[in-house]
Amino acid sequence: MKVVIIIPTYNESGNILQLVEKLQETFQQIKHDMHILVVDDKSPDGTAEVVKTLQTRFNNVHLLMGEKAGLGVAYSRGMTYAMQTLGANAVFEMDADFSHKPEDVPRLMAEIDKGADFVIGSRYVPGGSIPMEWGFRRRMNSKFGNIVARYLAGIYPVRDCTAGFRAIRTSILQNIDFSELGVKGYAFQVALLHQAVVLKAKIVEIPVDFIDRTKGESKLGIRDIIEFILNAWWIRFNSLKTFLKFAVVGASGVVVNLGFFTLFLMAGLNKYIASPIAIEISIISNFLLNNFWTFRSRKTKDRIRIRGLKFNAVSFLALGVSYGTFVALSIFFPNVQPQLHQLVGIIPATLLNYFLNSYWTFKEVDED
Ligand code: GDD
Ligand code: MN
To answer: How sure is the predictor about 116, in pLDDT bands with cuts at 50, 70 and 90?
Structure first.
């Protein structure tokens, strides 16, 4: 397996030399083809020069230069390069400032070897830790970040969503369009993790101690914090979107159903015949909208023909439920307006529609 440790740097000349040397030592415990990719954004302190001298000593050290555009942009470029140019099977995310212990690299790697897709060096699982010397504010910032990611963005099962020390199989990354993440800064960590969750990656957290940097300073700025919170809201909104589309399609179906039913009654059609025809028309329009809008992006295992058959099966079932309700209500409440019976009949039929279409007709294929 080819493994690339991606280290973004901005003014890390005081750290990068020692870190690369330390990493080379730990590589001796790992039975993989280990590489280091430094993604430097033209650091004015000459970080790239240090890396270039390292390249004369080690042939597994790579350097990717770019313009400073944020941590997320640096990682996106680094991961793309690691996959496309270096042919990596797995990559690491790691800070240059010794906050992540090089000695922990083999432990993260071991989890990949055991079959994990996405390994997080976690500060918030038992055994992990944040620096003792962190003050109240820094602690709160970190805790708050994780609360936002877990409860707002909805990545509840992961304890350390913002961690920057991770090992990831490229089989997962290949399915992610970095430009679609829409983040430039530190929010990248949460955005990428969320994509891994969506792709049903096997995520494993192992405890690590996060060490405070001794040289240089943190690059996390107010812009990153704002983007971080907006990104969490965006993730939440997007996961609600399918449900909201369902509701909108359902509402349009009600209008179609009652509209056609009224038209048929006005045309003098018997209400017992007008009802199922109106139901059928609304179900077909619902299905079309769900197919081409609500579930458009779902990768289903069926070919369109099979999906069409399932459409029909669900359609008939829902028609039966809706019509059955209509008939029952007409018998038990003969003096109530037929429109009301028709309306109530829509409710159980629509719920059944949603359920069966989401979990059967448009069921997302499992990648594994
Ligand atoms: N190329 C590049 N471009 N590198 C950058 C940039 C950038 O715009 N911004 C930061 N880096 C590099 C730094 O040089 C360092 O190696 C690494 O990215 C992490 O940056 P720090 O500034 O040290 O981050 P931190 O200590 O505040 O944040 C750490 O903890 C966070 C969670 O609390 C990181 O591990 C984050 O990824 C993590 O989210
Ligand atoms: Mn740091």
So the answer is: very high
